[in-house]
Each structure stands twice: as C-alpha cells, then as structure tokens.
Amino acid sequence: MATFRDELELKGDPRRVDDAGVERLDRALAAAAGVPVERVLHAIDPRRVLAFQAGGPPVWSVAVAPCADGGFLFLTYGLSRAVEPDARFEHELSLRAPAAPNGQPPQWPTFLLRQLCRYQITSGRELRVGDPMSFGKSITRAAMAPQHEASMPDSPLTTVAVVADPAIEGARRVVGLRPEEHALAELWSTAGLMAELAKRDPTLETDIRRGSWADDAELRAAVEAGAKREGSQTGAMVIAGLRWREQGAEGVVLRLPGGATMKRLVAL
Hints:
By secondary structure, this protein is α+β, with helices and mostly antiparallel strands. The chain has one domain. The chain is about 30% helix and about 15% strand. It has helices at about 20-35, 110-125, 180-185, 190-200, 215-230, 260-265; strands at about 40, 60-65, 70-75, 90-95, 130-135, 160-165, 170-175, 245, 250-255. The longest helix has 16 residues, at about 110-125.
C-alpha cells in the first residue's frame, strides 16, 4: 500500500495558538448562529502555522457557521489574545451574510475579514465600534488584486461600519454600507445610523444584493433628527477635486467640486 506524506517546511517563527481559546470561540460562534458546535467550519490555510511576521496569514483562521434562521456567520480567530497570546488587540471581527447563489457560504467575507485584520496589524490602527472604512470599490473585491477582482461578485456596498457584535462577546461586527448610506452616517454618526439599522435588521446582515436603506423615509427622518439633536460627528472628509490658491499675504481661495460632493458638504 502506498504511503503519501505532505510536508511544509517552516522558514520562520511558528504561530502561537491557544487551543482553549479556539474552543471557546467555536462555542461562541455556534451559539450565536444557533447550531451545534460541530457545524463550525474553519478556512484552512497551510501557512497559518507561521506567525504573520514570518509570512503567515494575518489571523490563524476565519471560521463560518450556518445560521439556524438562514445565512452564514463568519468570525476571525487570532486578531485577539483570546487565540494568539502575542496579539496586540482584544477583539475579533465578525460578519453575517446570506448564502451564495449555490447555497454555500460566500467566499468574499473571509477575504474581507482577513484584509481588515491585516490592516489593523500592519498599521496598528484599531477598528473601533462606530468606525467606518471606505474602500472606493465593492467590499466583496476590496481584498482582491485587480486581476482577480472578477472572481468575486460585484456589489454597490463600498464601505464597512463597525458595531458591537449582537451575540458574540468581545467581537465587533462588520456591516456593509452603500455610498448614500455612508453619507447618512456622515450627516449624523456611524453609531447613530447603525442603531437605527439594528431596529430594522437585528441580525445586522450584509446582503450585497439588497436595496438602499437611504430610500427608507422613516430612517432618513431619524437620521436628520439625530443630526439636528447631536450634530455631526464627522471629523474629516476626503474631497476629490479640491483646488486652492494663495491670495495675498494671508488669504487662500478654495475651489470646491460640485455635484454629490458639494451636497455632502452642504448637508454637514
């Protein structure tokens, strides 16, 4: 009988993983999804035995569990010290999405969550509850090189917002937003908008085929009321097409772009 051996040569420091922490997250993910822990599946990358600094992936795993009420719940393993003792953060990231057209878990959430973990680890900038992050393109393709983008479905969702996971303690849920929905968050606050969205969808699912929440008149009214009551919490904006020139010793003339960008500025 033939014997086959698969070997992976380690050329760097191995990744330290707390097995008890993995089991705790498995149980938490299963409980949040409403399924037995045996239904939790891990995306296996052979390089995960290596530390990130040695060429391994940013996190040890991204697991997925089918939700009892439909869809799939994804969770990172290794951004926090709960799994990797050497990690600098105390939270994991989660995302809930409907099934792909073939009924299986979609692939893009795994790539997106890994990319968000990579960003935090390499930059040292923590994604906090209430933070938005815009990609300028579909979140389903945000982690893909240009030549591979076509392998992922397209979507009008171009921004993610971070909220506390409603079911997994210590995890932060990533929720996809369309540009016009992100504009509503800028008008008031990301936290305020997400609180209103949670009233309409307590699962905080990221459905890349859904319509726009900005078309909900009651939601827009709630955002406008919140902005009038609390003001805007937007601290900075990136404005494409901004021009300026000096005028005199102390004067500066700004030329702002029109269209949708100007409408956003006027709204603020």
